[in-house]
Amino acid sequence: MIKVDRKEKFELYWVIYVIVLFAIVIGATAPAVYTVGGDLSSVQAGIIIPNTAVNEGKVIQGTLYAYQYYFAIKENGGSITSNELGSPYYYNIMVAHPGQYINLTMYAAPHMATANFYYPDYATHVDDVQIVPGLVQYAPVVVPNISGAFAFLNGEYNGPWFSYQEGLLLVLPYQGYMSQTDVSKYITQTHLAQTSTLVGDPYNPPIVVYNTTMTPTVDLVADQYAIFNNSVPGPTAVVLANSNVTVNMYIPTPNSDHNFLYNYSTSGTPYPVRNVYIGIYAVWWNGSITLVKQVPIQYDKTITFTFTANAPAYLYGLITPVYYNYNFMNMSNTLTGEQYGYVMGLWGTILVEQG
């Protein structure tokens, strides 16, 4: 018979204890693993999305790809077809009509990290779904019954620019423009979300109303972090239909690694990005986004856009992701590490109220 001394017995008991502890932890968290991405039943009719919505054609089929660091979203159904400047994908936005539902099927894009889709409680349902590489995830988005621009975001740290991976659900009237009552309800509902399920900057774009003038001026000033007026997305402006809108944008020259427009060449030399456009873009009732005006980005000067507000909503600024590559002193490589991706900042929306 082999004798086991006290030290060996203690080590054996310790190993058994650790194994049992692991088993308990795995058992306790197993259900979360299977539902980490949101299971298919969550988007089936009769669960969150009512059968009546399906029968009445109020369900939009959506496909979301999570990149580092933006969402690409394709929509079809419910009188909405995604079309952003000719592309079938929106970048960091969704479009719907009041009272509809978006049936989202979600994927992590190839070679991307785990992300998250978080849509707070604006209506009756919160979406908080992990988007895991190699898995298919689902989320039923309950669209509010009022028009407005409602934030959603990436709730998972997938790299240093994750806090810029924020989006807006643009809820447009079926026709016409937002009513004054809708504007008031939208502001109330947004403030409620910002104090409960949507707490903390930069996820709370302020709402600025210009409904007492037919010649509003919207001033947007970027900071060292390449965001407008300290918010991602930037402020949501509300203007009157058919008003003559002036939008002033000022962007200082990027000069630090806190700014995604401060990029690096393949040799490790920093430079400010200049091959991108900023502008004003109309969002129409059917989900199409068309160009109003745009110019190459310019630094250290005020860029002014003027337009007549006849669409139900507009996007402003830099509405497509910008490639970013951190390559300080040419030290970025697969051995020491790489940090690159596509980032969206310097953008926001303008909603149009019935005059």
TrEMBL record:
Keywords: Membrane, Transmembrane, Transmembrane helix. The keyword Transmembrane helix applies. This is Terminal oxidase subunit DoxC. The chain crosses the membrane at residues 12-34. It comes from the Archaea. It comes from Saccharolobus solfataricus. InterPro entries: Cupredoxin.
